[in-house]
Design a protein that fits this description.
By secondary structure, the protein is α+β, with helices and mostly antiparallel strands. The chain has 14 helices and eight strands. The N and C termini lie far apart (78 Å).
Length: 419
Amino acid sequence: MAKLGELPVEVLEQVLLLLDPIEFAQFTQTCSAYHALVYGNPEDQHLWRELFLQQPFDDLRHCYTSLGRPLKAVNWRTQLQRIIRARTVLTAASVCRAEERCEVLQTLLDMVTNIPPATHPEDIDISLNQVWATAMLRGSTLLDCEEWELSSEERQLRARLHTYFGLTSGDFRHEDRTASRMFVYAMRNYKYDNDFGPFMMDGSGHVNWVHLRAIHHVMSLHIVPATEEAASAVFNLFPMSIPWTQSLLANGVNLDEEQDWAGVSGKWLCSFCFVDHRELLVFNNFNSSDSEPLRAEIFENPDFHEVFRSIHVDLRVLGTEVDRDHPGRPRINFGGSVDGHAIFVGNVRVTPDNQIRWHFTSGEQGNAVWSSEGVQVGNVRSKYGILGAWTTVLHDRHDPVGPFWLSKVADVNDDEMST
């Protein structure tokens, strides 16, 4: 019988591909010749590519970025090593070193965003990356881990991943829901510095994912009842969870050639929440100071009521403007109507951190009353929709604030939109 070292290279490689990636790496440490075979030529990626494709992941050659562009040159070795390290951390969060938290969180975000698009609303083009990530996250404490002292960057990355994932068991705790409501309804979180929306207060225009996750939490618990059954579920599958973050792009569509690259035109459902204005003012101490403690007991009152309402809106593109910072993704100007009455005017554009931002005003009889700022969660044209915050166009100190969720119901062509 031939010894392992006497096998032809082609046969040895086939044997190696049967190993788990960790076992694969361990094997290369047993002999300098084996190490040279795997690591000797960094330009030769064929073995790493085949090992990657043996895993339950999407083929990176068929994946698109969150803005709808095919992935560029892929380093199969680096990508696999990053994912396997993330797998280890998801299995035992305690092994994660403080200096690698950002890398692990970014790896998981890359996994759930750099995926193949779905090609038809009714087809089931499930992303293998998302299936794997969902299965791993639901069995991990990563999203709810309270032992870590997170940096600002780590909080943002984890909040974004949490927003994509959906609801965890911790989200059903009363105190956690109260904390999210406090963040969402705190008037001090809406200023000119962040355009009165879920953006960073430094004026950068970057998304504040901690804010957006709180909005997601508040809105989600009006879709998924806070029952014992939901709290103990392995995974709550609903339209603000990870399967809905996948892009919807028909075969052959090149978004660089599409005026409506964001998929604005169509029929939408706009859902929003609000609380009694007097209670809002009391909770915020009449917004007299950013340093005074907020009055959380408002949300603990048995008589507290948060209103959830929805309206159907028809949106259509009015035109575009070149965005020199984002070629192929121009600013989209749009209008909208409810029952034939024009009440929406807004735009969609890409933020400096490459997220898709929605801004619109709405009102009655041609008068703008409400101003809304939101972010497309997931990939471009995903069915997840837009989460954000609304207030008035005046932005006065005592004006109400609240969260909204804009989800697309159906695509409509221009002829249908005009009838």
